[in-house]
């Protein structure tokens, strides 16, 4: 109960303090942290909880972003109404992509999803879809204004709106992973043969997990498109998928809360590396990542969880 109240207080502070004190670019950065956290959360459900390795979640992020951009620019649909549509489209695509997961696993599945991440930007540029996607030029959309006469700027409202969506998705993810379905996911991850012998339908569980994971990352892509107000194929290169995977590992693969730490890492550490060395920011980034993996092998989420458990034990004495 105390933990629940603490989390609720932290969420409230996360909504009020940045909105009141920050503006412009820094508030936009925090919005993108929340967006990336949702995307990494989708990957954590698939890889960390269920054990299916994906190196192509940038493709689902792109599909979600383009779904929102097309609906807003061509159909004049309200930004908030594009989210459930994007969720449905990405869940369907994720379910179809998850079908090969029934026959593939490990590195083979990772390579298959990697191929998807490579292919999606090229598909978005193709002349066949240029009417909807804008081709190489991409699409520009308008940033939404705060509703109900709220005295908030576009950046402030988008941060609050994105944080609100994230809270809902995180609550759903916790309920999913801590319940019966979550236990089945972990059973398949730890020992698929034993899980099947216990009556778990591997085919249905894997494909549904892929669909849920893609849905989460697709919603993140929609929110990212609304925040940036622009989408283009080159924004969703294969490097984006690798970035999400780095965020997953840095935060802790099986840690729901660690996805937030992973999002902070991929948003701010590259900027920090660039400030440290203009000549070789990539080298600095690599050194920071290696040091983090050496000092916190279970990721930042696992490290914080272990510290919290020690504090609880010490407090109980």
Helix content: over 70%
H/E element order: HHHHHHEHHHHEHHHH
Shape: globular
Structural class designation? mainly alpha
Strands in their spatial order, largest beta sheet = 1-2
The overall pLDDT, averaged over residues, is 91
The tally of helices reads 14
Strand content: under 5%
Tell me the number of structural domains: 1
Describe the structure.
- The protein has one domain (2-237).
- By secondary structure, the protein is mainly α.
- The chain has helices at residues 2-21, 25-49, 57-74, 79-98, 107-125, 130-133, 154-178, 180-190, 192-197, 202-228, 238-251, 258-276, 281-295, 299-316; strands spanning 139-140, 230-231.
- The model has no long low-confidence stretch (mean pLDDT 91).
- It is built from 14 helices and two strands.
- It is globular.
- The two termini are 20 Å apart.
In short:
This protein is mainly alpha-helical and 317 residues long. The chain is built from 14 helices and two strands.
Features:
two-stranded antiparallel sheet; 14 helices; 1% strand; 2 strands
Helix and strand layout, with pairings?
Layout: H1 2-21, H2 25-49, H3 57-74, H4 79-98, H5 107-125, H6 130-133, E1 139-140, H7 154-178, H8 180-190, H9 192-197, H10 202-228, E2 230-231, H11 238-251, H12 258-276, H13 281-295, H14 299-316
Antiparallel strand pairs: 1-2
Helix pairs in contact: 1-7, 2-7, 2-10, 2-11, 2-12, 3-4, 3-5, 3-10, 4-10, 7-8, 7-10, 8-10, 11-12, 11-14, 12-13, 12-14
């Amino acid at each position: 109960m105390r933990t629940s109240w603490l989390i609720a207080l932290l969420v409230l502070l996360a909504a009020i303090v940045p909105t009141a004190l920050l503006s412009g670019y820094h508030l936009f950065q925090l919005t993108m942290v929340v967006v990336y956290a949702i995307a990494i959360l989708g990957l954590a459900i698939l890889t960390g909880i269920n054990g299916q390795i994906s190196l192509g979640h940038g493709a689902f992020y792109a599909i979600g972003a383009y779904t929102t951009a097309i609906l807003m620019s061509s159909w004049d649909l309200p930004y908030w109404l594009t989210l459930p549509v994007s969720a449905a489209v990405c869940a369907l695509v994720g379910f179809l992509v998850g079908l090969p997961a029934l026959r593939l696993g490990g590195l083979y599945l990772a390579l298959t999803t990697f191929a998807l991440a490579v292919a999606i930007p090229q598909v978005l540029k193709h002349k066949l879809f240029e009417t909807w996607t804008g081709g190489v030029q991409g699409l520009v959309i308008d940033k939404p204004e705060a509703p109900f006469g709220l005295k908030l700027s576009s950046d402030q409202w988008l941060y609050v709106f994105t944080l609100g969506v994230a809270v809902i998705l995180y609550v759903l993810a916790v309920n999913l992973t801590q319940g019966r379905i979550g236990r089945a996911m972990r059973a398949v991850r730890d020992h698929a043969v034993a899980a099947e012998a216990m009556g778990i339908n591997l085919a249905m569980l894997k494909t549904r997990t892929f669909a849920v994971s893609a849905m989460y990352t697709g919603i993140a892509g929609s929110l990212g498109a609304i925040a940036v107000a622009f989408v283009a194929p080159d924004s969703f290169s294969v490097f984006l998928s690798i970035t999400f995977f780095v965020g997953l590992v840095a935060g802790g693969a099986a840690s729901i809360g660690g996805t937030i730490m992973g999002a902070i890492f991929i948003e701010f550490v590259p900027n920090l590396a660039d400030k440290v060395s203009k000549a070789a920011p990539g080298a600095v980034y690599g050194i920071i990542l290696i040091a983090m993996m050496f000092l916190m092998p279970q990721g930042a989420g696992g490290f914080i969880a272990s510290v919290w458990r020690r504090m609880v034990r010490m407090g109980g004495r």
